[in-house]
Design brief:
With 360 residues, this protein is an alpha/beta fold. It binds phosphoenolpyruvate and manganese (II) ion.
Length: 360
Amino acid sequence: MENSKQMRVWLDKMELSHPLVIAGPCSAETEEQVMEIARELKKTDATVFRAGVWKPRTRPGNFEGVGALALPWLKRVKEETGLLIAVEIANVSHAKLALEFDVDILWIGARTSVNPFAVQEIAEAIRDTDKIVLVKNPINPDLDLWLGAVERFYACGVKNLGVIHRGFSTYTKTKYRNKPKWQLPIELKKRFPDLPIINDPSHICGEREGILNVSQTALDLQFDGLMIETHTNPDKAWSDAKQQITPARLSEIIEELKVRVPKLTKDSSKEKLEGLRSEINILDNSLIELLADRMKISSEIGQIKKNNNVAILQQGRWAEILDKMLKEGAEYGLSDNFIETIFKAIHQESINTQEEVVNG
Ligand code: PEP
Ligand code: MN
């Protein structure tokens, strides 16, 4: 995988003035639904029509897709609208059927890219294809596992490759359905600057509200495109109803997005600066989230102290924390003064939080 430039060719050939926009329903439901959405999307900047045919569901009993029945509908989309078509493939039989129906873009879902056996089998089944293969990040935040899946396709002669960042599962509830953890795609971009990277704000947000913001962050970080779930009647969608938007809303979002860097040009320092600033913004957001998590735990501790009538300030514990952090900070080249200032402020806020719990 040393030559990520080779994987960019398919995207550069598309000569898009906008980022690549892949849109369409979470699931193909009926031929009428598919055709209606595709006709509406044709009026937008979307150039690729997505639809799940085989749906990987976390729990049994949910709608699992109409299956191969939908493949002729997608073919019709391509013939009648000229949009390229994209489906998720999760096993060898899906892979073979997708090739048979001339599907242009095959994507590997988050529940498949975690499994090297499954990825290997699929890669062998589509060996040397010139179709585009997009690998979604695995559900767990493991960059090597993600890249490992890409490497398996590359090693099987699949060169038109790309990745899709769709966020990561977390045990604790967050405002996202799948937390974006932007550090991972940033690191991936550093390692393989030419590997096309698409953002899927729909599966990150899990609801309509945040789609514009997440898409904007992705563009600020020089993502190459967006995959957005779109349905003409989102509330009635058979899967992922809460996160789908109408084609009209998609147009509005695309209109509103600021494309700061239309093409990746590695040597322009202005663009580099903007990219680095976006990275800082992401890290600052993570700092706030971490601090909020820390204060939540502080307040739980406050509750325990209250129930047991224990003093809020435990000098020994505080000295221990500061000492540990000074050592840790020094290892990363952070000055004692800096660490002390930050941790004093954090400690003070912790005490304030606990005092509020204890004294009301
Ligand atoms: C999808 O794209 O509809 C899908 C199931 O996505 P993911 O694999 O990211 O959950
Ligand atoms: Mn979906």
